[in-house]
Design goal:
25% of the residues lie in helices and 17% in strands. The chain is of the alpha/beta class and 531 residues long. It folds into two domains: 272 residues, Metallo-beta-lactamase, Chain A (4-Layer Sandwich); 198 residues, Rossmann fold (3-Layer(aba) Sandwich), CATH 3.40.50. The longest helix has 21 residues. Its main location: nucleus.
Length: 531
């Protein structure tokens, strides 16, 4: 369940009280579903008592007790890659415990398990294939709740019948029917368009799912709060969100794609700005290194970006046009290029964006008028082209550019993925928590730190970009320290017991550090959208 990653971010807001979700524009509704009116029997969330699970050490982390270790073993069996549905095993794969909210009839990103016993509401965090596996036009196992952006995408791409799709408003607590009064607040995840976190609040009313391990709180009046992160890029705005700030979260289902200290890659806004500035300089023929020593060293690189112009009878014609090519994943496979990433580069170049009709249709599922206005069907009108990530390699990119011979003489490609990031030489692989924070916040990232990959030519340059839509280790650390939580449950890279233990040790360290700092004390940040 490991993942590669690409892009998404939100610009910093001048108001510290503004949530990330405020930047997600209203999207075309898919169904007429409205927020359910709370029933008279609904538990009063404001009367919620603090979690009773305050035991220190192992009991504050789900992955460490004997009972939970057994649950993880059970989950490993359920996720066996060799599983084949037969009559003897019920015809379906059993859902691991972390796919069903404890004590609630709610499953998240669990479509591959079919109709899960006791589940009456299925939630989808975002439209990436590893989260909607097996979801198709044949789905009839229950209502699907998601953001409007995700709803648009699964109807468009997968043909899911609209009767099952119920888009929810962001930042609004909505009572979900047939769940015993559970309220959910979707929050912008800062991942891909339409992605969101889900904050569930309510009593435990049923031991739904396939796990043999049951909750002792089912039937009690205690209100539980679960924050399911799906995939997300953690930011200060998340922990300061009005629905989260000041509340104790009983379970945090955490995106642990990069829960390893070697993945402290730069903040999204800095990387986006760096790429836009680099593209602008290359296309305009501005030297990439302005000090004398570096200019001499990079004379060859700077030489190829100079744009020549000649006058014709009708107009001045650019005969040295540089094409900017951005590698993306297909949303049906993994990722989708986000508005912030592509529009930043296109704005810097003052040009249109070209992509094939399939990609354009997916991009138009987003409610982003600026992005839509930049799209063009003419590859010669668009100075920025979106292509599959696999094209951003020397041979295939060369073939792609050859198709426009006579129109573009040079090309620069951007290959965004967090997996390309490597920590500086000599970096401590087991740093203290405070070292992680101070070291990361002291660093900045600019276009001068983007270097062309090996074996490139003067006419063809490719830049690997340390960019991800998932939280870096540093961001996970700040998020964990800034939140008051009872248990933290890893949802990525959990197939190996050894991997779970390594992640569990870091969660223990975060737990100890936040208790020293004070639960819920937000780590100092540079902007609302990044630490």
């Amino acid at each position: 369940m490991s993942k590669s990653a690409t892009s998404d971010t939100r610009a910093a807001s001048p108001s510290a009280s503004t949530s990330i979700a405020a930047n997600l524009k209203s999207l075309r509704p898919v169904s007429s579903y409205q927020a359910a009116t709370p029933s008279s029997s609904k538990v009063k969330l404001e009367d919620s008592e603090p979690s009773t699970d305050t035991k220190a050490g192992a009991f504050s982390i789900l992955m460490t007790s004997h009972k939970e270790n057994e649950a993880w073993k059970e989950a490993s069996v359920a996720e066996d890659r060799n599983f084949r549905p037969t009559k003897s095993n019920g015809g379906r794969r059993k859902a691991p415990f972390y796919k069903v909210m404890q004590g609630m009839p709610i499953a998240v990103d669990a479509f591959r398990y079919g109709a899960i016993p006791g589940v009456t509401a299925y939630f989808l965090t975002h439209a990436h294939s590893d989260h909607y596996t097996n979801l198709s036009a044949k789905w009839d196992n229950g209502p699907i709740y998601c953001s409007e952006g995700t709803a648009n995408l699964i109807v468009h791409m997968l043909g899911v019948d609209r009767q099952w799709v119920h888009p929810l408003p962001l930042d609004v607590a909505t009572t979900i029917p047939d769940t015993g009064g559970v309220q959910v607040t979707p929050i912008e995840a800062n991942h891909c368009p339409g992605s969101c976190l889900f904050l569930f609040e309510g009593a435990q009313t049923i031991n739904a799912g396939d796990s043999v391990y049951k909750s002792q709180f089912v039937g009690s009046s205690k209100v539980f709060r679960y924050l399911h992160c799906g995939d997300f890029r953690a930011s200060p705005a998340h922990v300061m969100h009005p629905a989260i700030k000041g509340k104790r979260i009983d379970h945090v289902y955490l995106d642990t794609t990069y829960l390893d200290p070697k993945y402290c890659f730069p903040p999204q806004p800095q990387v986006i700005s760096a790429c836009a500035e680099l593209a602008r300089r290359i296309v305009a023929g501005i030297p990439l290194h302005e000090d004398a020593a570096k200019a001499k060293q990079n004379r060859t690189m700077d030489g190829w970006v100079t744009t020549a112009t000649v006058k014709t009878e009708q107009k001045e014609q650019d005969v040295g046009r540089t094409l900017v090519v951005v590698g993306t994943y297909s949303i049906g496979k993994e990722r989708i290029i986000t508005a912030d990433w592509v529009t930043a580069i296109a704005r810097a170049l003052q040009t249109k964006v070209f992509c094939d009709s399939r990609k354009a249709a997916i991009l138009r599922c987003q409610a982003d008028p600026e992005l839509h206005s930049m799209l063009t069907k003419d590859p010669l009108e668009g100075g920025v082209h979106l292509v599959p990530l696999g094209v951003i390699a020397s041979d295939r990119l060369k073939e792609y550019v050859e198709r426009f011979k006579g129109h573009y003489s040079k090309a620069v490609g951007f290959r965004p993925t967090g997996w390309t990031f490597t920590a500086p030489t000599g970096t401590d692989t087991l740093p203290a928590v405070q070292t992680i924070i101070s070291r990361s916040q002291s660093r900045t990232f600019t276009y001068t730190q983007l270097n062309p990959m090996k074996n490139m030519t003067a006419a063809l340059q490719v830049y690997g970009v340390p960019y991800s839509e998932h939280s870096s280790f540093f961001e996970l650390t700040c998020f964990a320290l800034s939140l008051d939580w009872g248990k933290m449950i890893a949802t990525v890279n959990v197939g190996s017991e050894n991997a779970r233990k390594k992640m569990g040790k870091w969660i223990e360290r975060w737990d100890a550090e936040r208790k020293k700092r004070g639960k819920g004390e937000v780590v100092g940040y540079r902007a609302e959208d990044y630490w």
